Structure prediction request, 792 residues.
Amino acid sequence: MLNKDYVAMTAGESVIRKMYMYGLGRAAQIGAENVFDYSLGNPSVAPPAEYTDALVDLVRNENPLLVHGYSPNVGMMAARQAIVDDLNKRFGTDYTVKNIFMSVSAAGAIAHALRAVVTPELKQNVITFAPFFPEYRPYVGGAGAELRVISADTNAFQINFEELERTIDEKTAAILVNSPNNPSGVVYSTATIDRLAQILTAKSKEFGHVIYLISDEPYREIVFEGVDAPFIAKHYKDTIVCYSYSKSMSIPGARTGYCLINTEAEGYDDFVNVCVQISRGIGHNCPPTLMQLAVAKAPGALSDLKVYEENCNILYGELSAMGFEIVKPGGTFYMFPKAPSGDATAFCEKAKEFDLILVPSDSFGVPGYFRIAYCVPTEKVKRSLEAFRKLAALYF
Amino acid sequence: MLNKDYVAMTAGESVIRKMYMYGLGRAAQIGAENVFDYSLGNPSVAPPAEYTDALVDLVRNENPLLVHGYSPNVGMMAARQAIVDDLNKRFGTDYTVKNIFMSVSAAGAIAHALRAVVTPELKQNVITFAPFFPEYRPYVGGAGAELRVISADTNAFQINFEELERTIDEKTAAILVNSPNNPSGVVYSTATIDRLAQILTAKSKEFGHVIYLISDEPYREIVFEGVDAPFIAKHYKDTIVCYSYSKSMSIPGARTGYCLINTEAEGYDDFVNVCVQISRGIGHNCPPTLMQLAVAKAPGALSDLKVYEENCNILYGELSAMGFEIVKPGGTFYMFPKAPSGDATAFCEKAKEFDLILVPSDSFGVPGYFRIAYCVPTEKVKRSLEAFRKLAALYF
Prediction:
């Protein structure tokens, strides 16, 4: 028979997906242009031409046995070299190809990083901070650890350090952070990261083993003007970066990203080869060769990301003026306002009456908020303001 | 610290890879044209133009937000529909999109299929037949089951049914088969598959639960003239097919394949959604969108595969004449002759003296044989015969 645990999981329904499906149904009724679908975190701008031109050039002009052939399990050397060169130039680091393992996007990177640092027999835990991406639950559970969630700092969506210090214990294998954050849009400040690093250094010493910092950074390149956005790996030696090109290059379908470990991190010598071993058991060894080679030709290329900041400014300004309480995002394409009724689900149901598709916050580990994924055309953001005004009028 | 089990695994070395690396080193010394590298199962012919043209057309002419965007977790509808239409036309089946889950090549397909049918708490086993692909060990172990290996039928590389009947028990969740087979090149006959189906039907009844047949078929399209090659899923209802385009289209770097379950199989209603749940824990949700869409445009396209049969005929005829004992392959690009000394490792070491790079059979679960991966240009096969002759002269 089929594994009953997985069968039971199929009954669960993602609230994000439920809202998205509702929006699709409504679009079929009244036209997609009349539905203000803020449910999904799908990039709304095209990939950079450097990337798409590279794809075509590779297919048309390079050796097909290379371009379509197997990648080494650690990833294509050309991609690994180009990526660390780009990081070193931007962040003043000195990574080499030995620091990097090419992964199937951020999901694959996190799957590898967690398995690398967790020993299931030890009944360890991994700590994250609300609000958090709901898939962290299956990621951490799949690696054989318990996910512990620190409740949100709702003043600023930075980190609730008091609760962290109470929660971290000798069974803590890693801390999993996501900055810029989905769903809050907030970026952890240098002060936040430095305090986190201090605590982890002290606790690692206290417990006699390293506590890793796994930094999930798919939104690293989407930071708004003037925002303090530290490169986290420079602030704590035992950091593993999990990256994806899904958002920065608008290529989530390319399933391409990486794990990067600091040279000073414990386990550095083994990490990349450990990732290779992990792949063998979970069935995905590396991203597609063609995408790796295309990224290698343009490792720093970016989509035209400024639309997200423009959308953010419009929504933040207008919704704040309507009465919504919002911590101003520093990046991403998300915003996480307080649900005025306190009941996020009821609020998002009410929003449907105005064809606003919003996601209630509960699955992100914080009750009483809602997520706006404003990766939509700016003209649509502007047209949606009238619907937000009608909705706000019911509460304020 | 890092997980010690994975660190320990890094010390292990694949004998295939070791031979390949030796060949690379030798090529640097004497020129690649003088090294007869039969170590790796990498396709040696280009992908079909239908596929590469589709890639370029999609990148140049289709909506970039679709082509580079997220795939649904089950796979792109266009790909699923095109693939089942192609299968139905070729095999007289009546699959629909509900039968198929798009996977990250055959490795991803097997990772999903095994997790779907194994319940780790039940301490189940999965049975396979020697000779077998060495990665079946981490695949089965990673899914939480014990791999049991039935020793080889060295007369014909069909199935040792007596040992199967003794080995199968109430804890057997699935049988994992690979036909056409890596490394023997042999195709299971209709008689073999029908007898296997009879045994599984009887044992499923005896034990009161279904025993699945997981059919790993990346070489399905590489079958030589006149060979009886049944479509296995038509012979046993509880079959899950694991497929990859890596060999048929020469695109192993595209990481694209699928899991397909029979409509009559137990668990059919849940299977595809169970695969979606499994993906959440292991971090790979589907193959790249672009590759799925390219396959959708040409689901039945094939590389020019006849070179493999030509190489097989040359090597089989010549090596047999030299005195090697070989079960004639029915497909793939592998051949599995008996090592004349009985010691496969010593034989393959000796072969190096003639710059023949061969792989000893031990890691495939059978001592005393060697694998020839003849996915190389035919002119090179011809030039290698002199080296084989010199080698054979030492033994016969």
